[in-house]
Design brief:
The chain is an all-alpha fold. The protein has one domain. The chain has two helices and no strands.
Length: 63
């Protein structure tokens, strides 16, 4: 809890663990796969590049 949070309610550990996993995945996408650096010219290209990066992350996570 921070000093400026007046109505703070502590979340259950289940939510904290799930959030930590999601934050870790986003961090990996940004760092390892450079998800923010996407020079696609069309939406179809953007979708293809993003899907390929997510697929590679999934394959790495599984194995």
């Amino acid at each position: 809890m921070r000093k400026n949070e007046h109505n703070y309610k502590k979340q259950a550990s289940v939510f904290r663990k799930k959030r930590k996993r999601i934050e870790t995945l986003f961090s990996q996408l940004c760092d390892q796969f450079m998800i923010r650096r996407n020079y696609a010219k069309s939406f179809q290209g953007f979708k293809t590049r993003t899907l390929s990066k997510l697929t590679s992350l999934t394959v790495i996570t599984i194995y």
